Amino acid sequence: MNEILKAEHLHKHFHEPEDFHVLDDVSLSVNRGEFVSLVGKSGSGKSTLLYLLSTLDTDYEGTISMNNTTVTGLSQNALSKFRNENIGFVFQFHFLLPEFTAVQNVMMPARKLGKYSPEEIESKAMEKLKLMEMDSFARKPSGKLSGGQQQRVAIARALINDPIIIMADEPTGNLDSSNSEIVFDIFRNLSKKGNTIITVTHDRDFAKRADRIVEIVDGKIM
Question: Hey, is 79 helix, strand or coil?
Fold first, then answer.
């Protein structure tokens, strides 16, 4: 496997209401196509680590490189462009626009990227919805979909720009066991096709079926 992400000696402090060393000399490497679960108690630093790896939080010490690019120190504009081209995000809450249809929601990151025509973007969006078995709901307002359906649309949206890494923060946190199983199977199939998956989860059953579990305890990798 080829290394796709490398973080070296990450330190992260929160300064309010008092100084707190949330990540303490964390180093991590992830290979292309690997499915990694970050686990740990609330407050352990696992979600903080994900936000650093995703480049959404740039206030840290250490270095992060991804897909042969050192992202540490890049400008916000450069990071935004890098994220849109390389990283797909899935959160516990789907953040869909309820008045927009499923396909319109999926199209949004590709429209921002600006690489394809509107017709090509819609075609790609339908392709990703079909992968999620949600193409028959493409024209339905996302606010009319069930929670599990909305999360599958959110995953399709994360895939629209063909990212090399998918980062997910508690992607099954609001789902029942049946829908959690569907989401796991989607991630497993994506990793088999070469996508790298990094997910934060409290669900031990979900985590233990990944390729690797990385446990964070008091800001350190165990």
Answer: helix
